[in-house]
């Protein structure tokens, strides 16, 4: 059985997408597709969680910037995004306000000072990590949060019927010997 590793998996995926698709399409597909619509949904989720102008947002696994792009259209915030693939960060920086900061980070840590973040988020990140890695990142997010700060994240859930296709695709790829990115489920 193939071993998963989140850095190499995503570097390979992004390289393949860039070879096979125009840039904008590749960058959308790299974060699951439907770039603008999903970014707007994620932005609305943060607003529902209490995001307000002047907040500091940390985005773990910011990818090609779909959330950053959407936030930049609606909010005046300080934004910090990290990802494990430089090509995604470069694209995100081009699609986002000039004051937004993006950083390559391949460590199981968050490059933020303690108690410095109002909202820490991880959309579609923990899905691709082992549970122990997700736990380390959640602990790091808690360390970085200001008192009263919030963590927002999404994940695949076995109880959600629409998530079963990701599980089936992962199993099919493993059976074929195809090394694809990891899809983990939480309950």
UniProtKB/TrEMBL annotation:
Keywords, alphabetical:
Methyltransferase, Transferase
Q: Which SUPFAM superfamilies match?
A: S-adenosyl-L-methionine-dependent methyltransferases
> Which Gene3D superfamilies does this one have?
Vaccinia Virus protein VP39
All copies of domain Methyltransferase type, residue ranges = 59-153
What GO terms describe the biological role, i.e. biological process, of this protein? methylation
Q: What's a single GO MF annotation on this record?
A: S-adenosylmethionine-dependent methyltransferase activity
Q: Which InterPro entries match?
A: Methyltransf_11, SAM-dependent_MTases_sf
Mind telling me which PANTHER family this protein's record contains? TRANS-ACONITATE 2-METHYLTRANSFERASE, TRANS-ACONITATE 2-METHYLTRANSFERASE-RELATED
Listed name of the protein: Methyltransferase type 11
Organism lineage reads as: Bacteria, Bacillati, Bacillota, Bacilli, Lactobacillales
């Amino acid at each position: 059985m193939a071993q998963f590793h989140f850095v190499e998996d995503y570097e390979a995926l992004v390289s393949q997408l860039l070879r096979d698709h125009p840039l904008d399409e590749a960058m959308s597909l790299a974060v699951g597709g439907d770039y603008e619509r999903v970014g707007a949904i994620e932005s609305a989720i943060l607003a529902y969680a209490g995001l307000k102008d002047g907040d500091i947002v940390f985005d773990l696994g910011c990818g090609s910037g779909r959330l950053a792009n959407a936030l930049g259209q609606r909010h005046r915030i300080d934004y910090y995004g990290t990802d494990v693939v430089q090509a995604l960060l470069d694209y995100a920086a081009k699609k986002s306000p000039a004051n937004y900061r993006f950083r390559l980070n391949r460590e199981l840590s968050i490059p933020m000072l303690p108690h410095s973040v109002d909202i820490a988020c991880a959309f579609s990140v923990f899905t691709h990590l082992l549970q122990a890695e997700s736990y380390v990142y959640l602990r790091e997010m808690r360390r970085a949060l200001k008192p009263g700060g919030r963590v927002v994240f999404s994940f695949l859930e076995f109880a959600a019927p629409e998530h079963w296709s990701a599980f089936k695709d992962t199993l099919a790829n493993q059976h074929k010997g195809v090394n694809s990115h990891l899809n983990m489920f939480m309950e």
